[in-house]
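Hey L., structure's done. Input below.
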Amino acid sequence: MKEKIEAAVREALAQLGAPDEAFVVEYPPAETGADYACNAALVAGKKLGQNPRDVAVAMRAALEEAHIPGVEKIEIAGPGFLNIFLSSESRAAAIAVAREKGDRWGSNDAWSDKTIMVEYTDPNPFKEFHIGHLMSNAIGESVARLLERSGAAVIRANYQGDVGPHVAKAIWGLLQEDLTQPTVAQISAAYVRGATAYEESADAKREIEEINKKVYEKSDEKINALYVWGREETLKHFEDIYALLGTTFDEYFFESETGPRGLEVVRAHPELFVESAGAIVFHGEEHDPKLHTRVFINKQGLPTYEAKEIGLAEMKRERRTFDRSITVTALEQEAYFNVVFVALGLVHPEWKDIFEHIHHGMMQLSSGKMSSRKGNVITGESLVDEMIMAAKEKMGERGVANPEEVARQIAVAAIKFSVLKQGAGKNIIFDPEKSLSLEGESGPYIQYAHTRCVSVLKKAEEENVASSAHVRGGIAPDIERLLPRFPEVVERAAELYEPHFVAQYLIELSSAFNSWYAQERILGTPDAADKLALVSAVRQTLKNGLWLLGISAPDEM
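Output:
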């Protein structure tokens, strides 16, 4: 519908002599009662040198003459906005489509000819799964699902640092305790010991740097054994967390593989990567004044993250064919990626603009920014566990069939929605209590609206009350105004890699449904069949929207 309106507005502008003016068709405030609003008359007024309201009058006449299918009326508001109202029949048609398409409701084909690799989560073996990994996972999984529902073939990728200074610090810490088959907790604690010693002791720093070289060279039997054990234990542990979060990866990449490849590529291009103070660097500012110099091979002859990223790009292209590769990491790595992607484009000009970076902000609790190096960190896993316990307490003795699973679903929803309701790059102050609330902007609030829909439909089935096949409009105008927007919201969210558009839409729809639910009797009324059809469409929309956010839609809570 939005595309139809935009096309009609362009035609009207052309008729008025302003064919190239940029305008927007957007969703107006709920109190207007309109389905869409357009600012075309305002921008065209400046171009034509006319009063915008006079232009709006002329545009309304042109649009009414065009007879946009599904549009009932057009009103002029304020200085010249056009408020566009759909007919009740048009709104009701969306209800029918939602029920007919089921789990495919909201899908589009905007990316149908594309294959996209989405790399996200990226925890490092020998370190804890921290809250930043939760954010990357939530955003990456949602972006992957949005692209899938927009027709793309999606490859989920996970890139993990299984070599590097952090590994050497952990192994050094393990050697101090003479641990040969440590637990995941012992490995994480050993990393903290090693990181602290690296900064405070010159001897420890020298020993850790030597261990780092031996890990790359595989030259020490005891270190090799610790490395193999620790890597395997932490990777297995990560898989448990992925399962808890609802993510399955298609490809895994490791720095132990990308490092040698990166070294090879960097050394093969001395015209780009040059020696500086014993290291090999790339002078980004020579190619773009907004960039800076970064080290790709350090003084010890080992690849840095930058060189490994070059190797990773080559390995991605070797393993899979794709049109675009998206990496989801923290905002603080943006400058890093800006330099690396320019260097990659110079090495492989044919890959220019294929690789992209989506950044997210930081998650903070009352203690402020958390540091895995110092150990004063609430890990991603511990946060999920704490939220599951809190969800169980809130559920109490409600008689839910599978309380453990439902508590997990609620906890994951609370965390993921707190991340996804924000725009990209914004920091988050995570409030456990608010995130679990059944009132306000939370994942459980939307889940609860879904369970209400399920409850109504289940009760109707028990009473043998069927819903209408063809819905009569006008039952719940606020809900009917929102339902047709869902496919447009999904398409926009996928285009901009912005799940928060879906999150905010679901809050608005849940709020409208809950208000209607509180005021209306559904069963036992003359129009119960039509109301049930509406409830069914809302349930399907909430379920599909939650799925796009990587959140489960339980039938009871």
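Residues 370-375 have pLDDT under 50 and may be disordered. The domain at 395-424+433-548 is CATH 1.10.730.10 (Isoleucyl-tRNA Synthetase; Domain 1).

-- N.
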